[in-house]
Amino acid sequence: MSAFARLSAALRSDALSGSLLIAAALVALIWANSPLSASYESLRSFHFGPAALHLDLSVQSWAADGLLAVFFFIVGNELKQELVHGELRDPRRAVLPIVAALGGVLIPALLFLAVNVRSGGDAIGGWGIPMATDIAFAVAVLAVAGRGLPGSLRTFLLTLATVDDLAAVIVIAVAYTSGLSLTALGLAAAGLAVFGYLQSGRGPAVRRVRAAVPGPLPYVLLAPAVWALMHASGIHATIAGVAMGLLMRTTVREGESVSPSHRAEELLRPVSAGLALPVFALVSAGIPLHGAGGFWTSTITWGVVAGLIGGKILGILGGAWLTARFTSAHLGPRLGWADIAAVGILGGIGFTVSLLIAELSYSGAPDLTHARGAVLLASAIASLLAVVVLRRRSAHHLGARPAG
């Protein structure tokens, strides 16, 4: 096996990719608060790209909107496999993480409003900040600290966090975006329809396309176009990655050794783990901690912390438990409610979308500084709590395995 093949195989490990992501985030945080902070800001604010296509973006935007779309494609593709062949084939199991995600969106927003309602003014505008879970960081913490946990818990987290992010993006489009382009959105939807039709592998049009342009070239051309149109629509462009992942075909047709879904995952997972996620963390996690006077007395700070820590646990665990209590939905055979509570804690890791909503909510210091610092504080607390709980649950599951 070549060195490149060994590296690619290693990068398919959630534990290694998670460690790289967390390490890159720590480097960014130290760099942004060091005497070299000016160089960090220069790096992530550097712009490049075709201005004619409205893609003259900063390095930070390219990472959050572009590179992260690769990771979201992997997530969508993995969910599609679970929906067709895995845990989520049973609607009674699939409904639990979906309802849990919706609870984890609603309760944090209500808690933020409860803390800030008396402040009035611009403070209540940040109600959407604690709604979103950062799926990349949450999966990283789960991979590093929860090695003995059932694989179905990871599926639960992926489903929950994807629905969570979709809900947050809808909130951004409805409540925080004034420049939504329906034309670009319609063209992106048309591109996705073509993508799905080509993935089906059926029909004379698909056969003609394959005869004229063999191999993956049609997707190589179509995927960036769909992403660019989604970006131009005003909706977070990573949604294009999720959508294309969910459209991947997971079955094997005549003449194929593996499905397109499997081929894409084999090719792109090392790219996501070794490039997309670490670079995203490096240019996104560097939040300056200076200039946050009044941070500890700000209702914005405590609204975000209460929403991400308390609200996520209550919403996720409560939503899942109530659904199981009053419907036929149920947990997987190896999962317990303590495992779902651990996912609720992981849900408090809000980063990318939370920071985006913070910037859309507040025009500048001190409110924006307090909101960004609160997201960082809550995410750090949630990560540490999750590590403790996940290790206990890992020990429990490992001890529960039958000998031999």
Automatic annotation (TrEMBL):
<comment type="similarity">
    <text>Belongs to the NhaA Na(+)/H(+) (TC 2.A.33) antiporter family.</text>
</comment>
<keyword id="KW-1003">Cell membrane</keyword>
<keyword id="KW-1133">Transmembrane helix</keyword>
<feature type="transmembrane region" description="Helical">
    <location>
        <begin position="166"/>
        <end position="199"/>
    </location>
</feature>
<protein>
    <recommendedName>
        <fullName>Na(+)/H(+) antiporter NhaA</fullName>
    </recommendedName>
</protein>
<keyword id="KW-0472">Membrane</keyword>
<keyword id="KW-0915">Sodium</keyword>
<dbReference type="Pfam" id="PF06965">
    <property type="entry name" value="Na_H_antiport_1"/>
</dbReference>
<keyword id="KW-0406">Ion transport</keyword>
<feature type="transmembrane region" description="Helical">
    <location>
        <begin position="299"/>
        <end position="323"/>
    </location>
</feature>
<dbReference type="InterPro" id="IPR023171">
    <property type="entry name" value="Na/H_antiporter_dom_sf"/>
</dbReference>
<feature type="transmembrane region" description="Helical">
    <location>
        <begin position="370"/>
        <end position="390"/>
    </location>
</feature>
<feature type="transmembrane region" description="Helical">
    <location>
        <begin position="219"/>
        <end position="247"/>
    </location>
</feature>
<feature type="transmembrane region" description="Helical">
    <location>
        <begin position="267"/>
        <end position="287"/>
    </location>
</feature>
<keyword id="KW-0739">Sodium transport</keyword>
<feature type="transmembrane region" description="Helical">
    <location>
        <begin position="55"/>
        <end position="75"/>
    </location>
</feature>
<keyword id="KW-0050">Antiport</keyword>
<feature type="transmembrane region" description="Helical">
    <location>
        <begin position="335"/>
        <end position="358"/>
    </location>
</feature>
<keyword id="KW-0813">Transport</keyword>
<comment type="function">
    <text>Na(+)/H(+) antiporter that extrudes sodium in exchange for external protons.</text>
</comment>
<keyword id="KW-0812">Transmembrane</keyword>
<feature type="transmembrane region" description="Helical">
    <location>
        <begin position="95"/>
        <end position="115"/>
    </location>
</feature>
<dbReference type="InterPro" id="IPR004670">
    <property type="entry name" value="NhaA"/>
</dbReference>
<feature type="transmembrane region" description="Helical">
    <location>
        <begin position="127"/>
        <end position="145"/>
    </location>
</feature>
